[in-house]
Amino acid sequence: MASPSGISFKALGLIAAGVLALIFLTIIGVSIMLAPPAPPKGPDLFSENPDDFIDIEDTQSGGAMLVTIVDQNDPTRIASTLRADRFEPIGEGRRRLDQPESWIYLDDGRAIRVNADFATMLMPDPNQAPESGTLEGNILLRAYDSTPAPGTPASDEQQPTLTARFEEPVEFERRYLRLSSPGRFEIESAQVDFAGTDLTVILNDLRNRIEMIDVVHGDTLVIHTDAVNDQSPQESPASEQS
Fold this sequence. Notes:
mainly beta
């Protein structure tokens, strides 16, 4: 069903879901790169004394971190970056990132920036992708139509074309490809402002698509008709109707 202005209400959810999907798929990819190599085997690893076994948690030290991921199909193109003031194990297979910031660079020149106070990832096996993770505190997502150069972040003065804020933690589960945030979220863009509570997104990895979007409580919906009327023919409201 489409709104009176011709914008599909389903498209509103896709805005939130698409941004979330990019963020967490990037987190999963980055976490694989962060996984430390397995400790070398030696005689001590076969000791009968449990106290002689190496704890993988003790082999990792906290510190600032910056990771760059390149496009699998084009190694000269930066696909995303992830930095944190501190990255360290916190016990029970969990890793913590303080002040994480990620930039995701799309093929068409657009970029997405995500910030939070900290993130935690459940990684029982440090050589595997995390089973789950959480972003917490001042979660802010910003999308930009372009950046000064490919793989270069937008300046603080450049205005984002879309901003999303989450008041409660944003969680993901790798096994089910499920993303959720139980609290209030707000999305602001030139075309639409949308707010609601309790967002769940389920991805379909095999079909490379969003399988389900569920917003338990919709709140505010503002459609900027002037921006909608300025859309190009390829982005006409009729093409968005479901």
